[in-house]
Amino acid sequence: SLKEVESFALKKEKIMNNGLLTEAERDNQLSSIRDDEGNSIDDLYLDFVLPGTELELVQGGRDIPLTIHNVEEYLCGVVDLTLREGVRKQMEAVRAGFSVVMPLSNLQLFYAHEMNDLLCGSKRAEQWEEEVILTSLQPDHGFTATSAAVTHLARVLSALSASEQRSFLKFVTGAPKLPVGGFKALHPRLTVVKKSVEGDPDRYLPSVMTCVNYLKLPDYSTAEILREKLLLAVKEGQNSFHLS
């Protein structure tokens, strides 16, 4: 993999930056570089072709084997073909399409992090405070703002880790980040309704209608059970779609 190649490059860099080595010692250490399994870079049997494709990184690349001596050129070629030259036409099309909606010159009004927030969503910690979540939810159909399940939900969400927050948002809204403005900026608002079940609610999992940010939550007896069932549903519900 590319990470394996990169690990060889990093080990080479460390040797090359060691000014105490003689040229012979440097050459000897370079030829002795191995990965954690004892393999040399030659054992990867790679050439200058973009992995998974037939695209040559340089002219005649399929006839150039990857070695410890050209590993930097290989990595630069992969990056260039993947992120620059290889997608130049596609990016030009994106620029042309974007400029139909908004002149590209207008983007100079924004800092890079502001553009990132607008296009990719925000992940500011204060948006996950319990009180903020509680005032942003829309309880309905059996729940009110003072329902135990709703307050439990706000408490559980505020205590989630960053990765759990991303998974929850993807489960409920289809996107891994909140828009600028946090939960209050969701459209439609995140609605939490009481899920009708037969028997003990603690036996059931919550479900969602992702297209409308709609969480159907059983009236769990404790916050601990709510957290357990919610995270289980989030984990099992990633990348799946079922009709209810």
Notes on the structure:
The chain is 43% helix and 6% strand. The chain is mainly alpha-helical. A four-stranded mixed sheet has the order 1-2-4-3, covered by helices on one side. 18% of the residues are buried. The model has no long low-confidence stretch (mean pLDDT 92).
Structural class: mainly alpha
Number of strands: 4
Identify the strand order in the major beta sheet: 1-2-4-3
How would a crystallographer describe the biggest sheet? Answer: 4 strands, mixed
Termini Cα gap: 41 Å
Q: How large is the count of helical segments? A: 9
Quaternary form:
single chain
* Overall pLDDT confidence: 92
SSE succession:
HHHHHHEHHEEEH
What are the segments in which pLDDT stays under 50 over at least 5 consecutive residues?
Answer: none
Q: What is the CA-atom radius of gyration, in angstroms?
A: 26 Å
- Which percent bin holds the helix content? 40-55%
State which percent range the strand residues make up: 5-15%
Shape: elongated
Observed structural traits:
single chain, 244 residues, mainly alpha, 4-stranded mixed beta sheet
Please provide a brief summary of the model:
With about 240 residues, the protein is mostly helical.
Q: In terms of topology, how is this protein built?
A:
Blueprint (H helix, E strand, L loop, with lengths): L1 H15 L6 H9 L39 H14 L3 H14 L10 H9 L9 H7 L1 E3 L7 H11 L3 H12 L17 E4 L12 E3 L4 E4 L5 H15 L7
Parallel strand pairs: 1-2, 2-4
Antiparallel strand pairs: 3-4
Helix pairs in contact: 6-7, 7-9, 8-9
